[in-house]
Specification:
Helices cover about 40% and strands about 25% of the residues. It is built from 5 helices and 7 strands, in the order αβαββαββααββ. The strands form 2 sheets. It has a 5-stranded mixed β-sheet. β4 and β5 form a beta hairpin. α1 packs parallel to α5 and α2 packs parallel to α3. About 30% of the residues are buried.
């Protein structure tokens, strides 16, 4: 019974988060600057034990200088948590999840690449829909609400960014997040 209550609580919490993101970031709050190098590095650190349990290595290629975006780290952290966690969940043991941060012109990119099950082409755009789960996730008995990637997309869009996916069945997936770069040195970061 308590696992059902926890599951329901998680679903309600995720729905509230998704609704807030779809309404846009809080316009009354002055957005801060987020260093993606630091945020992604912290997120990877949080996932190390889980990756280790599957003998998966997470490799990070980051920029030598801070990569700032305007926004809210509380909304952005779940984006990278979800993408990296999914990379670990759906990757085969003894593989590598690669995370890279790059900058081109006025955009920064965070790419998460796994060596997992892959996503059939016909389903690649549907994975961002509310409550959508691939049959492979269900057949592997992977718990989830089907809201994670909806929240990811809503958070990225709230930050004026985009997310794309390229995937090959039985080879893996590459999720690429692009966000507008903020070049000014911040007075404060979040």
């Amino acid at each position: 019974m308590s696992s059902q209550a926890n599951s329901l609580s998680t679903t309600v919490s995720q729905l509230l988060q998704l609704t807030r993101l779809q309404k846009g970031l809080d316009s009354e709050q002055d957005p801060g600057l987020v260093d993606l190098n630091l945020l992604v590095e912290q997120t990877i650190s949080d996932q190390e034990d889980f990756a280790s349990s599957k003998n998966i290595i997470i490799k990070l290629q980051k920029q030598s200088k801070p990569v700032y975006v305007t926004g809210d780290s509380v909304s952005l952290q779940p984006v990278f948590h979800n993408l990296i966690e999914n990379g670990i969940i759906y990757s085969k043991p003894d593989t590598t999840v690669r995370v890279s941060i790059s900058v081109k012109a006025d955009q920064c990119f965070v790419t998460v690449e796994d060596q997992g099950l892959g996503i059939p082409k016909a389903e690649q755009q549907r994975i961002f829909e509310r409550f959508y789960r691939l049959d492979t996730g269900r057949s592997l008995n992977k718990a989830g609400t089907g809201l994670g990637l909806s929240i990811v997309r809503a958070a990225i869009q709230a930050h004026k960014g985009k997310i794309t996916v390229k995937s090959t069945v039985n080879k893996g997936s590459v999720f690429k997040v692009s966000l507008p770069l903020r070049s000014a040195v911040p007075k404060r970061t979040r």
